[in-house]
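User: Design a sequence. Structure:
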């Protein structure tokens, strides 16, 4: 990857629906070159997917929570991870170092809905303890970080 690939990624990061012709004008490359570079980044796995970002409140999810989870033993990691992948309100999950094994992000309708999800998590085999944090306000929510030109 070179600086032009990073420029393309930064443009797509802001708007993944931007046309190759518009990108080509912005970075002064031919449309075919832009398309070729995007396809290379897709096939190499640099670009994993294109998605949408919804306004959680407008789709009915008025509560976001972060939950730390400890398991009794590492043998439960795989089955726990599989179960977490199935739950539609768990929007991210991280395996951690430190006092807790996992950190999950939950987006749900209400505190009652969060309570149901919390009970479901506690019912999973191997879950020893949880610690829940309610998000008051989203300050920054980006989905990927790209090196700046100075870092290359």
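Assistant: Done.
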């Amino acid at each position: 990857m070179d600086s032009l690939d990073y420029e393309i990624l930064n443009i797509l990061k802001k708007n993944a629906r931007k046309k190759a012709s518009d990108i080509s004008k912005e970075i002064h490359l031919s449309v075919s070159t832009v398309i070729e570079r995007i396809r290379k980044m897709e096939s190499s796995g640099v670009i994993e997917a294109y998605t949408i970002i919804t306004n959680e409140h407008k789709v009915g999810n008025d509560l976001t929570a972060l939950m730390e989870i400890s398991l009794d033993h590492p043998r439960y990691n795989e089955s726990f991870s599989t179960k977490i992948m199935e739950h539609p309100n768990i929007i991210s999950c991280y395996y951690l170092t430190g006092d807790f094994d996992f950190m999950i992000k939950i987006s749900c309708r209400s505190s009652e809905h969060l309570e149901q999800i919390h009970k479901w998590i506690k019912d999973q085999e191997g879950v020893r303890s949880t610690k829940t944090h309610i998000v008051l306000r989203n300050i920054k929510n980006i989905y990927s970080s790209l090196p700046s030109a100075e870092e290359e």
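Strands lie at 63-71, 90-95, 102-108, 127-134. The helical segments are 3-14, 20-27, 31-43, 77-86, 111-122.
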